[in-house]
Design brief:
With about 190 residues, the chain is mainly α. About 70% of the residues lie in helices and about 0% in strands. Keywords: DNA-binding, Transcription, Transcription regulation.
């Protein structure tokens, strides 16, 4: 039987792929130009298996970035099931800050991977923007934030997160910044 591209990966192949992504995330976050051979070795897979999954550094780095962005985005729905809308939004903002700070090395790897002429484009932050939109609309409908704030407004308001460096004690600064953003979102809310 011929293997088709849209056939799901066998479970062992899927485990190999996930293990490579997990090891690569840790390695590239620490060292943006970590050798692919070292990543394959730490993941416990052969070079052939590694390159079948990720033919080059760019493919690997962008897949990690997409995966991590999707994890942050997916957490919005989970938080809305567990917390009131306003609290879900603020908690999600903390997760976004954690992503921004702990993945700073990954950001360097992405810059390296996407800076080559003719190289791939940086992935779009669409899943995160969609998650922000969901959280904002839910909080707006609950009357706990001001009406009309768009995901674009929100992303611009929290852009200061990406100006901080992970080497400093970033958590208190991020919390203050995000509290200011929340104060601004609550100003003019139907139910402050």
């Amino acid at each position: 039987m011929q293997h088709r591209k849209d056939t799901p990966l066998r479970s062992d192949a899927q485990r190999n792929r996930e293990r490579i992504l997990c090891v690569a995330l840790a390695e590239l976050t620490q060292c943006p130009d970590a050798p692919l051979s070292a990543i394959a070795k730490k993941a416990g897979v052969g070079q052939g298996t590694f390159y079948r999954n990720f033919p080059n550094r760019e493919t690997l780095v962008l897949e990690i970035y997409r995966h991590e962005m999707q994890q942050v985005a997916d957490s919005a729905t989970q938080l809305l099931q567990e917390l009131p809308p306003q609290q879900a939004l603020r908690t999600w903002m903390d997760r976004l800050a954690e992503f921004a700070m702990t993945k700073a090395g990954l950001a360097d790897a992405i810059r390296l991977a996407t800076s080559a002429p003719g190289g791939p484009a940086k992935p779009s932050p669409t899943p995160v923007a969609e998650a922000a939109e969901l959280l904002l609309r839910t909080a707006e409908e609950a009357g706990t934030i001001r009406p009309g704030v768009t995901a674009d407004d929100f992303v611009l308001a929290i852009a200061g997160l990406w100006q901080m460096t992970p080497t400093e004690d970033w958590r208190p600064r991020a919390a203050r910044l995000l509290d200011l953003v929340m104060d601004g979102l609550r100003a003019g809310a139907a139910r402050p």
